[in-house]
Amino acid sequence: MTSIAPLSRRAVLGLAAAGLLAAATARAETPCCATGDLGLIVERATGSLIVVDQSERAAVGRIEGLGDLSHASLVYSPDERYAFVFGRDGGLTKVDILARTIVKRVVQAGNSIGGAISDDGRLVAVSNYEPGGVRVFDADTLDMVADIPTGSKTVGLVDAPGRRFVFSLWDAGATWIADMSGAAPAITKLAGVGTNPYDGLITGDGRTYIAGLFGEDGLVRIDLWAKRPKPERILPHYGRGREKLPVYKMPHLEGWALAGDQFVLPAVGQHEVLWMDARDFREVARTPTHGQPVFAMARPGGRQVWVNYAHPLNDTIQVIDSQSHEIVHELTPGPAVLHMEFTARGTEVWVSVRDADRVDIYDAVTFEKLGEITAKSPSGIFFTARAHRIGL
């Protein structure tokens, strides 16, 4: 009978090292699954998404069957593999951008307006018009874990540190903070925010929530670091004594930007953007613009702000210097410029031109057009770098 001699410690370590090397080699030969270069473009008319590669400036796939995406937005899981898409028809859809498939889709309400993902990536919240309120879902299964009725349309939903969500109530003039860190939601209700808050923003440090008011001039801010947060009015009566124009399109979530130490805010019903000192919330300047601003988005680093406009002047983008507050460049990409998205370090900006069925790509420094991608009625553009930013 042949016996097998026990292996020496050195031999065991050698085999283990060989195994690790083999595994590493196998991994190196595995097709790359990185997602940091990817993004999604919403095709609103067809209920589909285009998967794009930033470095290649190209479309690499399409995901279909997401319902009504006429006012859609999305957020990413922390690993940047999954996106949670919020459709106008109340649909919440989880998609796998590597496999380019729908993982799961639920229709959780009749009319929705955006959503957010918790800071730990485990919860997804949806803001609803019909029925009013916010519903919260498990990010893995899309099972509902909390229903927060408000008796009002909810807007301006953002994530905040500490597994919290902050949102405003259009009809009630209030802002609620939902703390989801415990077994059941703990709701802090702040009344007296103002008439018809229409949108919200949270700063990158998670400290300040700002809501815009449609029913009156001015905005409201809430210090989320305060022991007892309370609403405080800012920029009151910024349109005082001036004729308010018809509002063709409301400024959007993210339609406000932080450029250096200044907030840049589209003025509702006016052809101008407002500049506000981020330290004391005092107005410091105004810039007359081509039309009613929709998005005022700061290039990463804050050196310039790119602004697009509401119908009927929505074929144009203006670039404003954040130091001089002067317009330094103007582009006319084409009919219905709906959205802009910067690459993570601000080298390029991608622009959706809905009625031309394409997305244009520009050098954000020289303004040279670098390329374009064909898309069906494109609206929102979302790169995966958003996964690591508060409020996006």
Description:
The chain is mainly β and 392 residues long. The chain has one helix and 32 strands. It has one helix spanning 9-29; strands spanning 38-43, 48-53, 58-63, 73-76, 82-86, 91-96, 101-107, 111-117, 123-130, 133-138, 144-148, 154-160, 164-169, 174-179, 186-190, 197-202, 208-213, 219-223, 231-234, 257-259, 262-266, 272-277, 283-288, 293-298, 304-309, 317-321, 327-331, 337-342, 348-353, 358-363, 369-374, 378-383. The strands form eight sheets. Strands 3-2-1-32 form a four-stranded antiparallel sheet, with no helix packed on it. Strands 4-5-6-7 form a four-stranded antiparallel sheet, with no helix packed on it. β26 (317-321) and β27 form a beta hairpin. The longest helix is centred in the first third of the chain and has 21 residues, at 9-29. 44% of the residues are buried. Residues 1-7 and 20-28 have low confidence and may be disordered.
